[in-house]
Amino acid sequence: MKNILLLSDTHSHIDETILKYVAQADEVWHAGDVGDLIVTDTIKKLKSLHGVYGNIDDYKVRMEFPQHNRFMCEGVDVWITHIGGYPGKYNPNIKAEMIANPPKLFICGHSHILKVIFDKKHNLLHMNPGAAGKSGFHQMRTMLRFVIDGDKIKDLEIVEIGKK
């Protein structure tokens, strides 16, 4: 069983509130637009980290993280990418792979809009944690927490960090 903290779109921002939730997790997953590597370096000092780069990330972040990160967490096939779209409107660059080999859990960021949707067509759970940083149009900074227990995704919780 693993407790996961999912965040995205930090845009170089890390603070004590985010770190409080990092400390409570077994692993942290970052869905891109890291900004400055100080964000992920700080997290990696505390916990295991899976991440991807986003469209605002420079060459340093792109050297550290892939565009797509697909891995197994316990019995769950996870695919993280920054610009992935959502059920019914997936990014054309990933659509063929989504049809041929869908994951059980598909995660993206980019929109700064928190969404959790079950995609019946591809039998997968789609998550976008919104934005944990202070840059962008969103009003509330958000993250997601959940548990992966074997092949089950459970105990999903929205974390509102506060107004930006």
Which descriptors would you attach to this protein?
single chain, 164 residues, alpha/beta, five-stranded mixed β-sheet
Radius of gyration, in Å, reads 14 Å
For the sheet with most strands, the description reads:
5 strands, mixed
> Order of strands side by side in the largest beta sheet?
3-2-1-11-12
Alpha-beta classification:
alpha/beta
What is the general shape? globular
Task: Please explain how this structure is put together.
This protein is of the alpha/beta class and 164 residues long. It is built from 4 helices and 12 strands, in the order βαβαβαββββαβββββ. The chain has helices at residues 16-24, 37-44, 59-64, 92-100, and strands spanning 2-7, 27-30, 48-51, 68-73, 76-81, 85-86, 89-90, 105-107, 114-119, 124-129, 140-149, 152-163. Strands 3-2-1-11-12 form a 5-stranded mixed β-sheet, with helices on one face. Strands 4-5-8-10-9 form a 5-stranded mixed β-sheet, with no helix packed on it. Strand 4 and strand 5 form a beta hairpin. The longest helix has 9 residues, at 16-24. The radius of gyration is 14 Å and the shape is globular. The relative contact order is 0.21. The mean pLDDT is 96.
